[in-house]
Amino acid sequence: MAKRMVKGFIRLLARNGYAKLCVLFAAVLLWQWFDSLEGYWWPQTFAIVHAALIAGTAIEFLVPGKLRWRMPLHAAALLACIMVFSGFRWIPMAGEWKDAAAWGDWFAEIAEPLAPYIGVAAVAYGLFLFAGQFCRTRPQVALFCGAVLVSLAVLDSFTTIYLWDEVAWCVFISLCWLVAEHFERFRRSHPDTWRHLTEYPVSFVLPVIAVVGLVMTAGLLAPSVNPVLKDPYTLWMKSRGESVPSFVGDKVRSLPSAVRERDARSGYSRSDDKLGDGFEFDYSEVMTVNTNRRSYWRGETKSEYTGQGWVDSEEEQTEAALSGLETGEPLPKRLAGEPLKLSPEAETMNIVATVTMRRDEPFPVLFGAHQAAVIRAIDGAESIPAALAWLPESAELRWPRSDSTPYPETYVIESEQVVLDEEQLRSAGPPDPRIAARYTRLPAVPERVLRLAEELTAGADNDYDKIRRIETYLKENYPYTNTPDISKRRSEDFVDSFLFEVQEGYCDYFSTAMAVLARASGIPVRWVKGYAPGALPAELYISIPENAFDPNMGGSYTVRNADAHSWVEVYFEGFGWIPFEPTPGFSYPYAYPIDEMPAPVLPDLSDVGPVVETGGESGFRIPPAVGIAAGVLAAAGALFWLWRQRESLVLLWRRIRFGAMSANEQIVHETERLIRICRRRGLERSDHETLRETVGRWSERRRSLADDFQEVLAMFERAKYGGRPVTDQDAERFAEKVRLIRERL
Fold first, then answer.
1. Which residue ranges make up each domain of the chain?
2. Tell me, what DSSP letter sits at residue 599?
3. 641 compared with 265, residue with greater pLDDT
4. Element (DSSP H or E) covering residue 578
């Protein structure tokens, strides 16, 4: 009986064997392609799509009949995958069963958690069914496999995403699919010969395996060579005067070997003595932080700049530490000498952060918001490991590096943050001589760095205005990128090469440059690293009423490896260490006095790469590289012609779109369009509000876009109420700014 069942199952699998192989090959190819989007999808979406591919393949293999008979099963399988992996919870219907409105409300309530996943999963599943059912002939198979391979090759060549494994698997599956298609045609054309071949399966299969294996082995063992011909994308970038990093062979051939050997993924660094390598964004989760107020999650501080990076100074290495801590015990600000006291004018607020780790990885410190004040709990227990040390001078909670004391899964830290009162900081007295001597030390930096510091702070009569000038200068004059072109570097000093040679970089570049320029101006500064705030759940911006938002942006933040960040802290006598943020695209979440808004800072975001501080944006995002790949597949032959005709096409488009509108009218038109788009993205506007009031509320909700909103508002008011005509160039720049905001929404 069992033997007959096994034979029947084998016959079922063998029936329409080539069609089932097509489904399997399509599923594996799409699986590899979707793997390249792992960093841009929610983990739930990633799990849903992969589970749906497995379920769909099983249905196609095990359920006979026509496709239209299997479609209900496919729909049910897709819905089941979405419900299982999205955290769906059943909600009973509370109203009368005869009430149609109650049924509608109930359905909307249970369907709402599924909405973010349905669209993406349906498109992915539809592509799988299409490829498995309709890619049967050699041209169809070659077209589908070629599209997958070309798109992966474009992503691998023009981005820092490593897709070699995916490309190799796709080449292997494509060869197997073409071999299967060849034998299927042979079976239909010569059925008698085919039956004879199947009587000798070993002699039939071994040559196929040998040929495919030989091709794959030759490809893997072939030496790396540079390309002989330039591709259209490289030609286009070169024509614009922009460089294209080489990712051939060793993936980052243009970088020194020492750079290639180092970890190229973003994350919390373990060594900061040599800064400046490029990195690839890693969006894997590190921790979630449930807090009553949005903040940066501070880790360690370094005070000794070497010219190449940061190390612990002699004072930090010999700093007295306090151990044997107890929960609820206030952490002292100083162990020896006079206790460090804040000025009576210094107002503070408390921030409570519950940190839950999402990865099994030890860190040297516990993370908290700014200045830790009290440890509330560690792993839910009131006792604290005796080896945990508090370093008050550095404001670090050092976790013991010992296997006997594993890093905690969850802990609660209450921190103290000084309210940012600019007038009081301007009137702060001279810093403590001991602190000034320790945190203004510099090695022999080049003279032009010292001259720049002197020029930036000339005319400012207090440390606060000086530090703000340095911060604004860095934000406005240097673009953000995670892959700076370090081939331009000539100077031995890291800051000197950034300011005058490389002139682009990421947070380590900006924070180190600000620290050195400030110290050259006699301001005590220290370098700090940790994590940017992370992202709130995306559904908060959709499901929560506007009047229910917490003005402090409290909530549960997901912090990822890509949120690893560095900034600086400046010492003000009577106020302690105040954080400052020089990196474009980032804004430190200060606590301000009541009824006082933060001073606007207008960083240049035109060249900012992938967003690492999302400020509430999360979930599925189409990366720019995917758009590039699609464009190459759709219009590779027309790229050069479009580049030659770009000025004429832009002029034609503007004439069609705006007709006889003046530049002022175009800016007003673009602003109204942006308002409509923002409304569709969950940013409401009341009819009685002025645009200035609306922008103020939007800036609070979307801190990462606050500077852009303010710039749009200023240009709109100038165009509508200024009384003077603006230029066409102003209108073009305004349209570009609106486009950037739309993309980041």
1. 1-89+109-136, 146-241, 287-580, 658-744
2. P
3. 265
4. strand 576-580
Give the whole-angstrom CA distance, residue 208 versus residue 175.
Answer: 10
For residue 169, the model assigns a pLDDT of 81
pLDDT on residue 264: 58
User: Span 278-296, mean pLDDT?
Assistant: 87
654: nearest Cα among 740, 711, 734: 734
**What is the average pLDDT score of the chain?**
77
Residue 482 and residue 469: Cα distance in Å, rounded?
Answer: 24
Q: Which residues of 237-257 are buried (b: 16+ CB within 10 A; e: fewer)?
A: eeeeeeebbbbeeebbebbee
pLDDT in tens, 198-209: 666 666 567 767
Cα–Cα–Cα angle for 154, 157, 160, rounded to 5 degrees: 115
Q: Any idea what DSSP says for residue 41?
A: S
Q: Which amino acid is residue 258, in one-letter code?
A: A
Structure tokens at 504: 């682009």
Which positions ≥6 away from 105 have C-beta within 8 Å?
Answer: 95
Alpha carbon dihedral 512, 516, 521, 524, in 10-degree steps, equals 70
Mean pLDDT throughout 144-154?
84
H-helix segments, 521-638: 540-543, 624-635
If one compares 634 and 417, the residue with the highest pLDDT of the two is 417
Angle at 551 between CA 548 and CA 556, to 5 degrees: 80
Spatial separation of the C-alpha atoms in residues 230 and 493, rounded to whole Å: 35
pLDDT, position 94: 61
CB 555 within 8 A of CB 292: no
Q: Report in angstroms the alpha-carbon separations of 326 from 27, 288, 535.
A: 55, 24, 31
d(CA 590, CA 422): 12
Backbone angles phi, psi at 586, to 5 degrees: -120, 150
- Region 163-183 average pLDDT: 82
DSSP annotation string for 396-455: EEEPP--TTSPPPSEEEEEEEEE---HHHHHT--PPPHHHHHHHS------HHHHHHHHH
CB atoms inside a 10 Å sphere around CB 48: 27
SS3 299: strand
For residues 121-130, average pLDDT: 86
Which helix (H) or strand (E) element contains residue 569? strand 564-572
Does the pLDDT of residue 457 top 70, yes or no?
A: yes
Distance CA 589, CA 573 (A): 22
Q: What is the mean pLDDT of residues 616-641?
A: 46
Average pLDDT of span 688-714:
81
